[in-house]
Amino acid sequence: MSEVEIKSLKNINMNRIQNIIYNNIFYIALYCSITSIIFYIAALFSKTLPEKLLDVLSVFSVSTIDLTYFQLDFFTFSYYITDTGTITRSALTPLFIILFFIGTLLYSVSKKKEHRIFNFCFSLLFMASLTSIIDNTIGLILGREFYSYPLLAFYIFKSIIIVFISFVYLQKCYQQKQLVLLEGEGVRVFLNNSGDVSVLKHERASKWQRFVHYIIDSFLIIMLFSKYTFFMPRAFMIELTAMFGDRFYGFILYFIASTIYYVLFETLFKTTPGKYLMNTSVINYKEGKISFGQIVARTLSRRIPFEAFSFFGAVGLHDRLSSTTVAKQQSDKTYENGAKFILALFGLFVLLIAIMNFSNIF
């Protein structure tokens, strides 16, 4: 066989694998969510259950997303497991697992028409597994004492599978998404002072949706990346503090994490987890696909002071500088209100947990 034929055969096999994953994503998600629930409940009673049982569950379950908030107590709960004291765990992790399970059922009931919660959960699973691969690989190289090499290598392999499945599914969703078209020929938009005009043909996300994007994504960036700051070399942390001072230390870490977050998601999927929940995505004002340079321009322009609130104007600053905007995707009205109710309920749970812990702390 020639190289062209071999390459063509590989592409056919890869497309076949991708189609199998996409067509069976409900069963994959159901397995992931149920095993995560079982393993999380078992982990709560890890002091009383046999160690071999926990090892078996760890092998067959999908690693849960450990959502923390800089090791603060605002989103935690405590419970008694022994007579000697209590154990404190993140309350955000079980909430995510339950949301993943409910989102999976809604995805099936709606016949794949309502997938905002489903996509949101897979996007977090993608990001958490990707960072876990990097962290565990570093642990494998450095030889961390609390891991055995075979088990650590297995966890890395399992995370790679999760990343691949999540990537394939989210990419397929992006390729099949339909944007809400504007009536007529569209809207003429001035993007700069030179008088250049672009014609927007799709309905833009509302100002309140853009605000919700900002709040959710900022919250998720901290939750997904905060725990890894404690694994950084102490010498690097000291050097960073000495260079920028205590005042800008957190800002530098957030700058690095948010840059990775926005560039990665908007490059690969043209959206972010926050935009998944609002059923919106990033589009080009001009004809054609968004370039990587435009994504970088969007991300870096977010560093301009108070830029995050510029979208309350006619055109947001990072939209204007990158010639991009955020547009609405079509949704099924039959199940849309149900998804919004579920999200509002979970948001209320998170808020109540924070308020209760805040009152206990102070």
From TrEMBL:
<keyword id="KW-0472">Membrane</keyword>
<dbReference type="GO" id="GO:0005886">
    <property type="term" value="C:plasma membrane"/>
</dbReference>
<feature type="transmembrane region" description="Helical">
    <location>
        <begin position="251"/>
        <end position="269"/>
    </location>
</feature>
<feature type="transmembrane region" description="Helical">
    <location>
        <begin position="146"/>
        <end position="170"/>
    </location>
</feature>
<protein>
    <recommendedName>
        <fullName>RDD domain-containing protein</fullName>
    </recommendedName>
</protein>
<feature type="domain" description="RDD">
    <location>
        <begin position="205"/>
        <end position="355"/>
    </location>
</feature>
<feature type="transmembrane region" description="Helical">
    <location>
        <begin position="211"/>
        <end position="231"/>
    </location>
</feature>
<feature type="transmembrane region" description="Helical">
    <location>
        <begin position="117"/>
        <end position="134"/>
    </location>
</feature>
<dbReference type="InterPro" id="IPR051791">
    <property type="entry name" value="Pra-immunoreactive"/>
</dbReference>
<feature type="transmembrane region" description="Helical">
    <location>
        <begin position="92"/>
        <end position="110"/>
    </location>
</feature>
<keyword id="KW-0812">Transmembrane</keyword>
<feature type="transmembrane region" description="Helical">
    <location>
        <begin position="341"/>
        <end position="359"/>
    </location>
</feature>
<feature type="transmembrane region" description="Helical">
    <location>
        <begin position="20"/>
        <end position="41"/>
    </location>
</feature>
<keyword id="KW-1133">Transmembrane helix</keyword>
<dbReference type="Pfam" id="PF06271">
    <property type="entry name" value="RDD"/>
</dbReference>
<dbReference type="InterPro" id="IPR010432">
    <property type="entry name" value="RDD"/>
</dbReference>
<keyword id="KW-1003">Cell membrane</keyword>
